[in-house]
What we know:
By secondary structure, the protein is mainly α. It is about 50% helix and about 5% strand. It contains eight helices and four strands. It has helices spanning about 1-10, 15-25, 50-75, 110-140, 160, 165-170, 185-190, 200-240; strands at about 90-95, 95-100, 245-250, 260. The strands form two sheets. Strands 1-2 form a two-stranded antiparallel sheet. A two-stranded antiparallel sheet has the order 3-4. Helix 4 runs antiparallel to helix 8.
Amino acid sequence: QRRDMGKRNGQSPNHLLCHTAMSLKNVVPKRTYKERGQLAARNRLGELEKHKDYVLRAKDYHKKEDRIKLLQEKAFFRNPDEFYFKMAKTKTKEGVHRIGGEDDKYTPEMLKLMKTQDLGYVILKKTAESKKLDKLRANLQMLDAPSENKQTIFVDEVEEAREFDAAKHFDTLPELVSRRYNRPTIETIKTKEILAPRNPKDLKKIHRQRLASYRELLSRSEREQKMEGLMLDMHTQKQLMGKGRRKKVSPGEDGKPAVFKWQSIRKR
Length: 268
């Protein structure tokens, strides 16, 4: 029957068989393309470059090559007598083509206004940092920080001072005498329930959180000091942009700006 169909259509039976095989080729799943990875003995050399990585690298290389070739052609066919007026204002500095007159783009009034805006932004950020710092200090209360203050207890006799018992005086346990806070009395321990973590893991977790809060407090206080120095420096720069004769009284030290003194002017 297939031969008769072939004869009717004017095609040979072999052509029909070839056409059927080509259609079945698209139905059968193909083997996925795989590339081997880097060998274990060559891991020190990094990952093995795949074909897609090579394609990207080759495209980038040829793109740069074509760019260099185009620039070389432009340089070769350049007219040495060519001139336009912008050439007088341009120059090459450290291999970078720069346009002259960029330094004079802003007037002194515009620069002073920009300094004022920058100073206002720094003051805003410093205020926000100070509020966060005050909130941290209020939460931590610096209970674990070393204190220079000492509690002095006076007694009447020397013998009483030698036999002085701090736990008996404060009416607390000997283990709690060294505490400067949260030092309950023996009566409070007996009569009231003390809510405190008893699991050692919870105690360690609380201790880690407290240390992290102290580290944050220290870093924020240092940042606030730096921002205060920056604010003073910007304020000094803004004042120096104004008019009036002045002289330098002392140079800047320890991150603080230099001190200037302006000549007093009698105004009408």
